[in-house]
Batch of 2 targets.
Target 1
Amino acid sequence: MKKQYIGVFDSGLGGLTTVKQIIEKLPQENIVFLADTKHIPYGSKTREQIISYTLENIDILKRYDLKALVIACNTSDSNASDTARKVHDLKIFGVIAPAARKAVKTSENKKIGLLATTSTIASGRYEKQIHDLDEKAEVFPMACPDLVPMIEEGAFISDKKAMKEKLHEYIDPLIDKHVDTLILGCTHYDILAELISEIFPDLRLVSSSRCVIDDLKAFLEDDDVQSVEKTGERIYLASKDAESYDKVASLLIPDIRFQSI
Ligand code: DGL
C-alpha cells in the first residue's frame, strides 16, 4: 500500500508540540510537518496574509500523499480554516474546536481564561465556539504578543526568570477575574505548560496542542485508514533557515532534522 501521511503545520515550534502528541499517541503514523519560519509570527499578521500562508502551506504539504491535515496553529485555524476547507478536498482538523469543548467540560465556575495571539483573540473564534456549547460561560481573553518571539528564542530554557515575569504579566489579570480554567490558545504555549502550572498550581490548563489528537484518532479508526507500520516516518520541513532551526527545535524533539522546502 502506498505510504500516506498526516500533514501538520504551524508558523514554528508550536506545531511540534502537536507532532509530539501524534508520535506519542499514534506512533505508527507517518507525519510530514512544515514550520513556516519564513512568515513567523502569524499572530501579528492580517487575516488576508494568514489565509495566504495557510493555503501555501497546504500546497507544500500536498506534495506528499496526505490522508489528513492538522492545522496546528490557532491563528491559522481561526482565520483561515474555513477557506482552506472550501479550497481543498482534504480532511482538515483544527485545534480550536476540540480545545473549546475540553475547556467547557473542564471549567467548574464557567469562567475561562484564554491566552492566544493578537490575531486569534481578534477573530473571536474561541468565544463563539464556547458560547455555542454554553451560552453562560464567560471567556476572558488575553493577547500575548511577546510569548511566541520569546519561545522561538528558547527563553523557556535560557531565561526562565524573564519567561515567568511575562507569564505573570499576562495571567495575573485573569486570576483577578477568578478564572478556574486557562486555555493555552496558541500551540507554542504548550511549551510553557509546566512553568504555568508551577506558578499557578490551581489553574486547570487546556492545551490546544493536545486536544485535537482524540478527533484525529477517531477519524483514523472510523475511516479505517490507520498506518500499518510499526514506527511511522517523520519528515520535518521549514520554509526558511531549515539547518539553523534544528538547534532550537531539538529542545522539543531530540535529534530533529529539518529540510528546506
Ligand atoms: N502557534 C501559533 C498558534 O497556535 C501561532 C504563533 C505565531 O506565529 O504567532 O497560534
Target 2
Amino acid sequence: MFENILGDRQIKTAPDDLAVWGKDWTNGFEVAPSVVVFPEDNAQVVDIVDYAIANELRLVPSGGRTGLSGGAVAGNGEVVVSFDRMNRILEFNAEDRLVTCQAGVVTQTLQEFASDQGLFYPVDFASAGSSQIGGNVATNAGGIKVIRYGLTRDWIAGLRVVDGRGELLNCNAGLVKNATGYDFRHLFIGSEGTLGLVCEVDVRLAPAPEPQLVMVLGVPRVADLLDVLKTFGARLTLSAFEFFSDLALEKVRAHRMLPMPLEDSQPFYALLEFDGSALEAGMGAFESCVEAGWVTDGVVSQSEAQAQALWQLREGISESIAPYTPYKNDLSVCIREVPDFLADVDKFVNESYPDFEVCWYGHIGDGNLHLNILRPEAMSVEDFMAKGHAMSPRIFELVKARQGSISAEHGVGLLKRDFLEYSKSAAEIELMQGLKALFDPHQIMNPGKLLP
Ligand code: S2G
Ligand code: ZN
C-alpha cells in the first residue's frame, strides 16, 4: 500500500513500529494499525487521502502521540498518518507577528522559535516537549496559561487542512479581520482529526512578557482557593492559577525527589504566576489571604531557577502518577461552581469507591479540574478501566447539572465518546454528525473518535 505515492522510508509496517505509532498516552485501548505513513508535504497528504478514498481505507492522524483520550489510537487496521516528517517552520513575518508551521512542529520548538524572535507563544503544558502543533490544534490544547492568554484556538490565524474529500482548504491565511462567511478554522480546531488532516498552521505570536514570579500557597479548603483567586485577581494580572492536592504533591515529590515547598503540608496548594513588577501587589494579596485564613503559608520564587523548581511541583504530576495508570477525568465548570462541584465529586468517589486514591489538580483559574483516580495495585488495568467507565455516568451527571464539560482540554477521542450526551444536546450531536458527513463523506477521517 502507498508505494506508488510515497518513498520506502515513508512507510512502516513492522510490528514494533505499528505498536509505537498506533497509540498515544492513553491506556486500555487495542492498538492495531495496518501501516504508518509519513507524508513530507501537503501534496502527499492529499495523495494519501485520495488513495484512502479509492481503497476504502480509514485514516488516524498522529502527531506527538501525547493525547489522553485515545484520539490518536488506531485499533482496527487503520492507516496512521504521522506528521513527524512535516516538522519545518516554513515562514515568519515580523510585521504580522505570524509564524507558519508544518503540523509536525513540536510545541516547544515553536515556543523557542518565538523566543528567538523576541516574541512568545503562550500556550503551554507539561507535554509541550513532545506534542505537535497539529495535535494541539486538533484538541484545542489549553494548559497552564489559559487564564491570561486563552487556548490554542485564540492563536491560530490560518490553517491548511485536507478534508475527507481530498480538498486542500486554506482557512483564513493569517488575516486578522475576515468577514467573508463561515470561518472553517474554528470547525477544524478541536475536531480531533474527524473532519480533516491539519497540514500547516499560521500561528500568531504575543509580545514577550516581563520576567514572571511564581508563588506556591498552602490552602486549607477548596472553597478558599476561589477566595484566593479573587483576591489576587483583583490586584494583579495572573498568568497562571493552578491547584493540586496534598496527595498529588506527595506523588510528585516521591517521583522527582523534590523538597517540600512549605514548612508543613496542607490539604491543597495554589500555584500562581504573575509579572515580576507586581511583587508588591502580590505580597499585599498574600497577607490579606493569610489574615482571612484562606492561606496558611506561602513561598515566592527568588530566581528563575526557583520559579521553574516550583512549577515542577505542578507540571510533574501527570508523569508522576502515570505508573498508577490513573482513570482520567478532565472536567470544566464555570469558576463560580468549582468549590461545590469539587466537593460533590469528592464525596461521590469517596463514598462509592473508598479504596481508591483520588488525585485532584488542574487549572482552577479557568474552571478546569483534573480528577485522576489511581489504580489500586491489586486491581488489573482492565478491571480498573471498566470501574472507571462505570463511575463516569455519575460524575458526568454532576458535570451536566452544572452545565459543565466532560472534556475541558484533552478532547473526547475514544475515552469519552460514549458520554458526549452529558455535554452536548441531541440537536447539537445531530449537527455534528451532519458536519462530519459533509467534510468526511467517505467516513475515513479518524472513524469512531469523538462521535459514535
Ligand atoms: C495537566 C496533563 C495531563 C493529565 O497536567 O494539566 O492536562 O491529565 C494535564 O495528567
Ligand atoms: Zn491540564
